[in-house]
Amino acid sequence: MSVVVRGARGWVLDAHALVDRGYCRCRRPGEDDQRSHWTGRFKKQCFQMPKCHFSAGADVDEGNTDMLHKADRASKKRKRKHCSELNQGEIDSRAFHEKIGSVVLEGTTSLLASARSLGYLTGVTDAVKAPLPSQECGLAALCDMARDLPIADDDGDDDDDQQRRRDQCVQPLVGEGGRTSHLDLFSRVTQHEARWAAVVPLMGGEYVIPPRAAFLLSDFTRMRPLVRYGKRFDLIVMDPPWENKSVKRSRRYSSLPSSQLKRLPIPTLASPNCLVVTWVTNRPSHLRFVRDELYPHWGLEVVAEWFWVKVTTSGEFVFPLDSNHKKPYEVLVLGRYRCDAESSAPTSAVPVEDQRLIVSVPSALHSQKPCLSEVLMPHVGGGAECLELFARSLQPGWTSWGNEVLKFQHTSFFTLTPDGAEAGPESSSPGGSSPHLANT
């Protein structure tokens, strides 16, 4: 099950199981042959982290799963700076950690105890010895090229014109006869309405699209189709590409100045009392910006801060809790859209508790965050319309936008097992012909 523990302090999630939701039935559109039906699973090796990063090169006692003692020992190996040597950002980071460190430690200890009582995060895993998928993502570059493509104008204000614009900006993933060619992925929202996942050829590769998912592949300059889509969302989750030194050094993706986030049309996309959740780095200036500038600019009221705590398969922090280099947690800021008197009136919205923890083994793939649908749905109700911004993958039933929105949907990240075949670490490719569907 994807939610291993649900308690007063938060949740322990099986992030791998969360990704797998919706892929139990995969097929190629237009092919009714049973040989074209598969069960999909995200590559298991992406969620195997047996050791704390700090001691990855050192000898580790595999029987020692005492997270608290390990964090204490490792943190003493680093030479601490004196307060007089810290810059203002480091001083602010230390102050923030001192404020919430005990919350993270005590809550994680309690949640891990419950998880271990169920046999989870005990260090005993069915390890898959295989390299990580290494598919190069060129989607952002394609979005840059698509900026020169024409896009429908905004003329006309009556109902017929608005309906015409909505029709122009939406297209089905699968057309008549199972056709998936000639899709305009960059200026139209693509919808997959079926209740099964589709394995489809797109842009010279093969991708697995979950059921009832919609997506737009674009950057800031071409967001209008998402606005014209006509939906108001009850839940919006975003993981902005924050500026920081690590990103600049790695050049893994383009970062975005914080001020540019104000351009996102949240008031147009959000329904009354929409819950907005933003992933924030541990840089205090980013957290202050979201709480004091960004959310007020959109008409959002901050209702809670949650923490994603990253642990190994043995239940250790991935970095020592008191590390001066990196912390084993990230912050999520939750806000409600209350822009006018109507939306600020008392509603049936479920209150959001503050300082909850989400504990999981992180993906080894850069920037892949755990799916939050299981923990957020109780706060938005059944049948909620959900949107992810700056997405790098799709979720069943969600709408997703970003310039790498299909990054982790490439078939190289999945193991696809033909129906009726026994799943294993070395399953054959569906149909036995496509190199993109090779399994490890």
Secondary structure: elements and pairs:
Layout: E1 3-7, E2 10-13, H1 15-20, E3 26-27, E4 37-42, H2 67-75, H3 88-117, H4 139-146, H5 159-168, E5 170-172, E6 189-192, E7 197-202, E8 205-209, E9 213-217, H6 224-228, E10 233-238, H7 245-250, H8 266-269, E11 270-280, H9 284-298, E12 300-310, E13 329-337, H10 341-344, E14 357-360, H11 373-376, E15 386-389, E16 399-402, E17 414-418
Parallel strand pairs: 2-14, 3-7, 5-6, 9-16, 10-11, 10-15, 12-14, 15-16
Antiparallel strand pairs: 1-2, 3-4, 4-17, 6-9, 7-8, 11-13, 12-13
Can you put this structure into words, describing what you see?
- By secondary structure, this protein is of the alpha/beta class.
- The chain folds into two domains: 152 residues, no CATH class; 243 residues, Rossmann fold, CATH 3.40.50.
- The protein has a twelve-stranded mixed beta sheet with strand order 1-2-14-12-13-11-10-15-16-9-6-5.
- The protein is globular.
